[in-house]
Amino acid sequence: xxxxxITTITLFSSYGMAQETNAKNIQGDFDGNGxxxxxxxxxSDCGDECEGKCETTIYFSDKSxxxxxxxxxxxxxxxxxxxxxxxxxxxIGFYPNWCTSCWHPFYVYTLSKTGWKPLLPSISTHxxxxxxxxxxxxxxxxxxGYVIVTSSKWEDDDIKIKSSSVKVN
Length: 169
Known about the structure:
Elements: H1 2-23, E1 25-28, E2 37-44, E3 55-60, E4 68-70, E5 76-82, E6 91-96, E7 103-112, E8 115-118, E9 123-126, H2 127-131, E10 137-139, E11 146-155, E12 158-167
Antiparallel strand pairs: 1-2, 2-3, 3-4, 5-6, 6-7, 7-8, 7-9, 10-11, 11-12
């Protein structure tokens, strides 16, 4: 009976959290036209244990902005990162959920004339980094055209969190 109760609570808690993240969206001027758009995510072909294709697609309220598909990803968190590269458009960050491991990439996308492209390679992060509130990217206040990238690395039998300034344009 105890196992049944714990299983039921776990299932309902997971369902409630999934509903909350599905309803979440962000707002920003991602195409630089001066009008705010909404971005939201939808997951396709992904079971409870991350079986299937497990693709998460970021859609936009302005249908002229092409969607972004990330795989593998079982939902995730969207972030408006502001205009990191000085092109007048706000960049999007995406932190994918997955069923195993504490290591997750953090993706940063910028809209170009040909569509969405990575602003820089994905940033390796570990849950320790998120628990310590060390966000993966921010504009470098000291150097124009640079961002501060904070990532997690496995070194000397430990997880190290390191930051460095990286040129983006």
